[in-house]
Amino acid sequence: MSNSDTFPRMATRSTYLTDELNDYITSRFSSESEDLRTLNEEAIAAGIPAISISPEQTSFLQIMVRSIGARTILEIGSLAGYSAVVMARALPSGGMLYACEYEPVHADFIRRKTQELGLSNVINVLEGPALTTIADLLASSTVKFDLVFIDADKVNYSAYFDLVLPRLRIGGLIIGDNALAWGEVARSATTEFEPHNVKALDAFNTRMSSHPQIQSTLVPLGDGMVVGIKIA
Ligand code: SAH
Ligand code: DHB
Ligand code: MG
Prior knowledge:
The chain is an alpha/beta fold. The protein has a single domain, classed as Rossmann fold, CATH 3.40.50. The chain has eight helices and seven strands; from the N terminus they run H-H-H-E-H-E-H-E-H-E-H-E-H-E-E. It has a seven-stranded mixed sheet, sandwiched between helices. It starts with 18 loop residues before the first helix and ends with a strand. S-adenosyl-L-homocysteine (SAH) binds next to helix 4 and strand 2.
């Protein structure tokens, strides 16, 4: 379907995001640099799945980091470090990004790449299951987060939310990737595509949209990001 199929236009209806429009956005608003393309190519060559955020999400995440003056970021699910490098590059000097990743091959890859890209003082890999590594971090320090990016196992998104919310500063952001659940989120009750993951993402969106301490929205870039700001 193209937007012209839906003319006459209705003021209350959003513009349908076609591939053509998505390519337009990507061509103008990606901050994917050459070394990030290389990172993804090397990750694929190392057998790491190609499931990083998409180029059109990079500028959005960097704007989120910069607009709240974030200094401390928690990323849950780091794969090969693509989104971690993106956000780390928007931090001021002295900033820190904790990158939670439980696959040893992925964690090794991230450590090697962050060294190569001169970010080893900024990106701190927490290797292991994130519920455990985050609980350990919170118990052993007084760290507070400015921004938490959730992109790991979908069934645990809500558990990560509960764990980090008390340590997110007021005015801080929680961002969850895959908020559109590969296009299935609006039919979570009936979908046959990874129903447990789709249901978990729907539940997380609903939690974010109804939590009294959070104001949230869903930004339909890539596979969608639910973005919440802590207001109380
Ligand atoms: N944010 C990354 C993509 C993450 S893909 C990017 O955009 O570049 C999801 C990652 O979460 C995978 O690497 C997977 O190994 C990791 N993961 C899944 N479950 C996890 C868990 N319980 N703890 C830590 N990492 C986990
Ligand atoms: C998958 C996970 C992601 O975080 C993503 O953005 C795309 C795909 C997956 O597990 O298949
Ligand atoms: Mg994702």
